[in-house]
Design goal:
Elements: H1 3-11, E1 16-20, H2 26-33, H3 49-64, E2 68-75, E3 80-91, H4 100-103, E4 114-123, H5 132-147, E5 151-157, H6 161-169, E6 173-178, E7 186-192
Parallel strand pairs: 4-5
Antiparallel strand pairs: 1-2, 2-3, 3-4, 5-7, 6-7
Amino acid sequence: MTEKVFEAILRGVRMLQMRRANIIDHEFLVRIDLKNDGYTVSDEVEITEQEREEHSKKIERFLTDSDKGAFIIDDSDFNKPIAMIMYSIANRDSVYPWTIFHELDEKLFQSDGRFMEIFQLWVHPNYRRLGLATKLKLKLEEESQHHQVDLIYTHTEEANRHVIELNEKIGYKEVRRGPIWDEVIRVSLIKKLTDDASVVMPVL
């Protein structure tokens, strides 16, 4: 941490602002997601140009699709983004390349199977332990009301004990522990926001 950043934090005058991400943030989101921060990477292999293009398009959908989104926290003093969270509205009944959601108790989900899945959460190392991850996760609870879903799902590697503790502190409960798409043990956590009966569903 630079002396300037540290002094600003001590003074409590840091200008941190949360906002919804837009297409201008595309390159930043792509770069951060490629960091694999907090994930075990079996082989340090450079991705191909085609894989890079596919990944870029995948991240772009978080800025354009109605069932996806992202929020960013900027440090306006330094004119840079220093934290972000990305989410998608998923459905337990959809077909996935892994079986994780079908392994969870169906009663956990609202009647139409929809829920919010946290895709990525990142905070710059110089800004960690300031409560920014918590603020971003709480923002998704507000966003879930807009999408009319009552459950938020996330997972992290078993080794990331501090991440698990953060989630538990704000009301997430562990519902599964084991491999998902590779041999790494991951902990799945959910937070129920309301009873299913109280969720206002759209009239079709």
